[in-house]
Amino acid sequence: xxxxxxxxxxxxxxxxxxxxxxxxxxxxxxxxxxxxxxxxxxxxxxxxxxxxxxxxxxxxxxxxxxxxxxxxxxxxxxxxxxxxxxxxxxxxxxxxxxxxxxxxxxxxxxxxxxxxxxxxxxxxxxxxxxxxxxxxxxxxxxxxxxxxxxxxxxxxxxxxxxxxxxxxxxxxxxxxxxxxxxxxxxxxxxxxxxxxxxxxxxxxxxxxxxxxxxxxxxxxxxxxxxxxxxxxxxxxxxxxxxxxxxxxxxxxxxxxxxxxxxxxxxxxxxxxxxxxxxxxxxxxxxxxxxxxxxxxxxxxxxxxxxxxxxxxxxxxxxxxxxxxxxxxxxxxxxxxxxxxxxxxxxxxxxxxxxxxxxxxxxxxxxxxxxxxxxxxxxxxxx
Length: 382
Description:
The protein is mainly alpha-helical. 53% of the residues lie in helices and 8% in strands.
């Protein structure tokens, strides 16, 4: 009994420790994480917060750490050892990258049924089949990063591990899928905006979200959800030949997924998106703090920022209202749609990348290539 009470106290202490970093590292499963993570895990996360690691990176590391700990307990009956031996890393690959055809004839191939069952009951496994190679690589990279932050060196660069991944990927080729099946180009965005025509708070907010996310270069949903009034600065109006000056606004993104320490990414809004954003701020009476917030049943505006997943839900809801296939769209479609629309309008790639803040020309140009290949001269040789 005394041992059980002591264990409970340790779990409660870890829950309190997680609470201290929740403002920087939002976690929906705090109590479950408190039971799953070790004291050292929580100390590592607190240390990363104190070192100023980016919020999105911290969220990803925490998610991967929770999965790794859950898998380690299910597969070995023990918490992860630090550093992890090469054999455990190879076991992780074998459990996650496997051949479905071979597993049909060999039940010992791939992840054992009891491990699979435990992870599913905990909510860590949802899809059927082997993991995507990129997911496995990312989790191994997170494992490696956390190992280094604990002051250890691991076997993550071992030839055996690299060969195991390479052979597993080659054995089961997978078609790379985009994060959003369809890009939200200008014509689709117009249909979504057509569902936001009233003066209701939801329509005003959703219109601002869609326009700001698209026009600011296809911002990530986490950037839109985390946007604060303090990041906005009014710029001088833009003069145009045949009309009144257009309102202009700068968004200071600070450190993002693609920036390095000390950088402050900056993007601009001009015209209608600025007007839509200002209309929301006035209607919701927001002059500081989070820009986009939840709206209660009785029209009350929350003081807390919108959850990133809510941005995705809003886009899907608007797609359904516009009589589009909501399953074909996600918030990432705004990002790919911005570059696709830029290609359709003949905007040079470097200019579009200045707004989207893509660092990889190869990644950004893929949207351009996809937009022009179908109608290009190369498809009309005969």
